[in-house]
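An example makes the point: we let one protein speak, the chain in one-letter code, the fold tokenised, and here it is:
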Amino acid sequence: MTTSVGGRCTGTDPSHLTTASPATPAPAEIVLGVYLRALRHAREQTLSDMARYAAVSVSALSRIERGENPISPHTLHALLQHYGVGARYIQYLARHLPLAARGNQHYTPQERRRA
């Protein structure tokens, strides 16, 4: 979008450009969410069944799978274990959760100390 003053082009108007907001999911959250959703679909599990199993709401699990919600190490461990992921990979993923990007407000104090 360009603007003009007195018939003279003044350049691009940056007011229409947007930048990533603080609420934009981190790439690691997006990848983890896609991975969790793929595992759930591969095992033909419903979102509501897995939410009940993980003791989270259906909407919370859906947001986790879309990379919009943080996931606690406990919930991650429960889901991955249920999906049959090996303990070594579960530990790796739990250790590499992006705490800073997630705003860690959903972690219990014990989970924060362990991470």
Remarks:
- The domain at 23-99 is CATH 1.10.260.40 (434 Repressor (Amino-terminal Domain)).
- Residues 27-42 form the longest helix (16 residues).
- The chain has a mean pLDDT of 76.
- Helices lie at 27-42, 47-54, 58-65, 73-82, 87-95, 99-102, 109-114.
